[in-house]
Every structure is written in structure tokens, then in C-alpha cells.
Amino acid sequence: MSGLLSGLSPSIHVWDAMTKQTLSILRCSHAKGVGYVNFSATGKLLLSVGVEPEHTITVWRWQEGTKVTCKGGHAERIFVVEFRPDSDTQFVSVGIKHIKFWTLVGGSLVYKKGVIGSVEDGRMQTMLSVAFGASNLTFTGAINGDVYVWREHFLVRVVAKAHSGPVFTMYTTLRDGLIVTGGKERPRVVETPGGLLGVSTLSSRTKEGGAVKLWDQEMKRCRAFQLESGQLVENVRSVCRGKGKILVGTKDGEIIEVGEKNAASNTMINGHTQGGIWGLATHPFKDVFISASDDGTVRIWDLADKKLLNKVSLGHPAKCTSYSPNGEMVSIGMENGEFIVLLVNALTVWGKKRDRSVAIQDLRFSPDNRFLAVGSVESAVDFYDLSLGPSLNRIGYCKDIPGSVIQIDFSADGKHIQVSTSTYTRQVHEVPSGRMVTEQSVFERITWATWTR
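RESULT FIELD:
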């Protein structure tokens, strides 16, 4: 296993995946960082490609810590360099409008550019992925969803629209020659009985159906897998295959194991993806919690089993979340000023409202589940009476709050809220009128729902 670093002094670290011990550290000449690494068939050699303008390709004897040779790869970015699975001397590089077939000859690298020729629908594309077949076949996945089939360095065929979006990843072994592809796709079920692997398949004419596909050796027939991880997986970035299973890495940070024969999915790792996790709340009496993130999803997790129970995409970055005291509802505050109330059992929308144009920072249900208080960057707290139904008409609000709202807490009787702000002030207001309370004698009599001393 290898790792790579970027920065002023990039290096490649090779370590044992089982013992986690470092086996070798390669100090690179890749000035701005390392973009990709790959082992040769025997594992004795290692390829690396830099992200500097020349996109230099370097061959290493990693066990000795020595560089065999290097050569400028391409003027534009190189995404992948892969040794043929039966070779320590031949590899392929692909990238922006680029495919080259390389050979290590002694201490030098020589290459041949891919030749398109007169193949129908053939034109040089940006290539994102590589796989290999018998008889010196190479398959490259293109940004438009096509797969190009090469013999030596000549294009022989184009598999049009293998995926409806970019083909980000491909994997094959010479053991049986079957090819796995992964890409971006909105699945559409069009099945035909029988076929490859003896199960329902997609015909060669209609290849839509899943972000992961298993193809025959010539990429003429395939089976599409529709993967579920709380919702349909539409964007796959990495695939691997072995022992009757396909391992899938998704854009959303999930790792899913799928059976080739029964198509059963097992989500092994999942979590939020882009941006931070801003909202976190525990269920009032169950060992579960909910998280909300910039990736626009909210997710319910099991504390004991440490696994995802449910998730839903809300379409916008989420900034905060809160359970109702009875555990039946959860509210989510959004970056765009909207807030959404979901029914917990199915994570379906009960109601939503947008009375502010800036981010919601905190929201809280009253102890009797009747009121919802929503605080925003707009220096305001709005009140909603949930007993009036999902229309969520505002019934009152707090004003004269110095700074954006950071936290809210209801009193135990639901008649007051306290607000902490970005200016390090604390205010108490009546519910639902929003009138600010200034009498010290009133403060002293209030018991807060979640605040302890």
C-alpha cells in the first residue's frame, strides 16, 4: 500500500497494510505534489505522476528507495497511470485529451500516443480511467461516458454511453477478463432475462441502469447494479473486485460491498461528504442521534451499533438540528434561511418555511412540543406554533438582539427563552410575544429546560 503527500517537499510512503508499518519513504522531485501512484505486476516497481506543469512520470524501485527513471508525461493533467497487470515494463497514462502507451526499456521511458484512426465516433476525449484485457487490449473510460477499446496503441472500437456520465473508474483481472466500470449515472431499470452470469441483465442496446456495471471480456454485454445506501447511489469513484464481490467507493464517501450474483449491497463505511458537520442532536430517549451537514443531508445514526439508520437529502447546506422532546419530529435549519420539520420515523417533510434570508444558527422545540423557536444570523428568533399545522405561520419574534443568534434554550414551562449571541451577550424573552425580560426577579424564578448550573 502507498500514500502520497503534497507540499514543498512531497514524498511517497509505502507501508504494510496489515501491520501498518512503514516500508519505504521516497523523497520526490515532483515539486508541487504527487497525483497518482501504482505498483507493477510483481510489486517491485512503483509509478508516480506529479502535479507540476510537466506532469512528470517517475519509476521507482521502492524497496531500495531509488529512482529508475523519469520523463515528462503530458502538458495537461494526468489522472491515472497504470501498469498492465501482467507486466513490470508496460503501462498506460490517461488524462486531459491524453492517452499514451509506455514501455520501460533499460533505464529509459518510451511511449506511443493512442491512434484514433477512422473508428466511428472516435475522437480524442479526456480519459479518466484504465483497465486491461487479454491479447494486449486496453480499455479507457472517457468523460462523456464512452469506453474506448484499444489494441496495442490503436483504437479498435468505442462502447458508446457505457455510462450516462463520466466513467471515473474501471477494474479488471486477467483471471476471467470481466470488467467492472463505475461512473456517474441516474439509473433507469430496463431488464432482459438471462444473459451474462445467468441473471437478469441489461441488453447491449440499453446500457443504462446503474453507476456500477460488470461487463464481459469484450464489453458487449453488461449487468448493471443499483446500489442503495439509504438512497440510490448515482456517482461511483472507485471499484475493485474479488471473491464474487465488488467493492465500491462513492462520491459521497461510502464504501459498499455488492454481491455479483445476488446484487445484495452491504454498506461498510459511510458519512457526510463535502463541508462541515454543523448540526448534531441526540434523541430524547433512544440511543440514536442526528447529524446535519454542508453536504445537504441529514442522517440518523445508531450509537450502539455505530451505523447509519436513515438519511435524506434536503438540497441545501444544513446548519443546525434539534429533536422534539417526544422524539417524533426533528427540525433542521438551513444556510439559505429556510427551516424544515421532518417526521422522524420516515424522515419525510412535515412542513417547511423561509422567513429569513440568512443562515439559521439554532432552533429548539418547547418542552411541551408546541412551539418551535428559530434563531438566525439576522439577529432574530422567530416563533411558530406547531399545533396550528404544517403551514408554519410565524406567530411572534424577538428583536433588538445584539449580534447573530448562537444558542437558544426554552424555560421548563415553555414561557421564556434565553438567547446567547455572537457578541457574548445573553438575553431572555417571553414566548411567543418576543418581549425582552429585564427584571432580575423574573430571571431568578426561571428554570431552564436544558441548561444546568
